[in-house]
């Protein structure tokens, strides 16, 4: 009897262990999703055709600033500018670089921290210091033409026209300066948002009107000559009840075509307005803080999940969507030879067919997380989150 009981006990223990193991496996299968990050960057295939060749690279060794506590922090918002065959970017100082060779043609001493980057055009380059002072310098000589105190931070590029320089501050004030002497022509302050945690947009000039989107999620149209406001409209409607759901920052520069102007915002919509009276023509769901792009009769954007979407510019219908790059922290989008190009957080540059969103190519740069890209002729200029720049030939 004793041996019999021993055998029964052994069988029970073996069966119990197997049952517990099965239960554990079932529980693991049931709650396995907890271990997976739903916002993890999508893994990409790298066996597509290469389409870029590196020409030169310039590393930024001054991409960190010191905070009050003496701890390093990355510069908030870097961007470069180009004019003709020259590139303008902030390194230890502001450098004017030959795009073809990478040679530094001129170096302009900067005595203060620059919050973001530089804009260039019409014979001048413009940057804003961390203390809110705008500097306008001559491109040829590098000498300062004029400066003005804004007493506020500027996170987006200035808009330079043949007569004016337009700057939008982080507290939603739009300044319009005379290009030649820096006199303030007019300014506009928008009603501030109760909550704003993102950046700022840049103003856009079209047919004598300045279109500006603000952190309160509204788009305004003002005459460039005197600042008279023609209209101001919300880009989207408030859909949620919490403060985060009500966040409607518009960091995307508006884009205009014929009699329409398009604007988009975070947690909101892509909306088409009539230029003259601000009448809303259509509004479709889109959450983005990246610039819009127009190609033929379509609009392109990357949403906050890093999906690439093409919309019909006439009615707002979605034409295609590519979700292969979700959560890969994409750069802005650019167009070259009928293809769409953009970078990601691993330094990859991707090429899509504009007709259908199909992936055509992938190239690996020598940079870190790519934030800004631009096309000049057959060259692609890219900038990473540390401010380093690489120029590549497109083939």
From TrEMBL:
Pfam families, A to Z: PQQ_2 (PF13360)
Classification via InterPro entries: PQQ_b-propeller_rpt (IPR018391), PQQ_rpt_dom (IPR002372), Quinoprotein_ADH-like_sf (IPR011047), WD40/YVTN_repeat-like_dom_sf (IPR015943)
Highest taxon listed in the record's lineage: Bacteria
Residue ranges constituting the Pyrrolo-quinoline quinone repeat domain according to the UniProt record: 95-322
Cross-referenced PANTHER family: CELL SURFACE PROTEIN, OUTER MEMBRANE PROTEIN ASSEMBLY FACTOR BAMB
Name the record gives this protein: PQQ-binding-like beta-propeller repeat protein
């Amino acid at each position: 009897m004793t041996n019999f009981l021993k055998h029964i006990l052994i069988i029970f223990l073996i069966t119990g262990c197997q049952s517990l193991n099965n239960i554990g496996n079932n529980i693991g299968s049931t709650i396995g999703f907890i271990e997976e990050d739903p916002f993890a960057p999508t893994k990409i295939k790298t066996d597509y055709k290469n389409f870029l060749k590196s020409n030169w690279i310039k590393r930024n060794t001054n991409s960190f600033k010191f905070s009050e506590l003496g701890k390093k922090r990355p510069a908030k918002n870097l961007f470069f500018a180009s004019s003709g065959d020259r590139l303008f970017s902030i390194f230890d100082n502001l450098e004017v670089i030959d795009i073809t060779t990478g040679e530094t043609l001129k170096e302009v001493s900067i005595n203060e921290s620059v919050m973001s980057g530089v804009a260039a055009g019409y014979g001048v380059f413009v940057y804003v210091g961390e203390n809110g002072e705008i500097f306008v310098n001559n491109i040829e000589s590098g000498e300062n033409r004029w400066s003005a105190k804004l007493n506020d931070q500027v996170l987006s590029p200035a808009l330079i026209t043949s007569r004016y320089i337009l700057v939008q501050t982080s507290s939603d004030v739009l300044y319009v300066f005379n290009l030649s002497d820096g006199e303030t022509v007019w300014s506009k302050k928008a009603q501030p948002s109760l909550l704003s945690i993102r950046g700022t947009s840049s103003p856009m000039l079209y047919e004598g009107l300045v279109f500006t989107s603000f952190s309160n999620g509204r788009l305004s149209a003002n005459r460039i000559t005197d600042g008279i406001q023609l209209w101001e409209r919300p880009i989207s409607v408030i859909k949620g009840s919490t403060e985060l759901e009500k966040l409607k920052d518009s960091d995307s520069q508006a884009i205009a075509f014929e009699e329409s102007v398009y604007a988009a915002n975070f947690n909101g919509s892509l909306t088409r307005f009539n230029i003259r009276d601000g009448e809303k023509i259509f509004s479709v769901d889109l959450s983005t803080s990246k610039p819009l792009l127009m190609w033929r009769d379509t609009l392109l954007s990357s949403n906050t999940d890093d999906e690439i979407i093409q919309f019909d510019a006439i009615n707002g219908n979605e034409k295609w969507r590519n979700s292969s790059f979700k959560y890969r922290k994409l750069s802005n989008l650019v167009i070259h030879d009928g293809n769409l190009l953009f970078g990601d957080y691993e330094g990859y540059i991707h090429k899509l067919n504009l007709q259908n969103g199909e992936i055509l190519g992938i190239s690996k740069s020598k940079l870190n997380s790519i934030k800004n890209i631009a096309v000049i002729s057959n060259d692609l200029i890219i900038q990473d989150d540390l401010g380093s720049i690489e120029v590549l030939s497109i083939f």
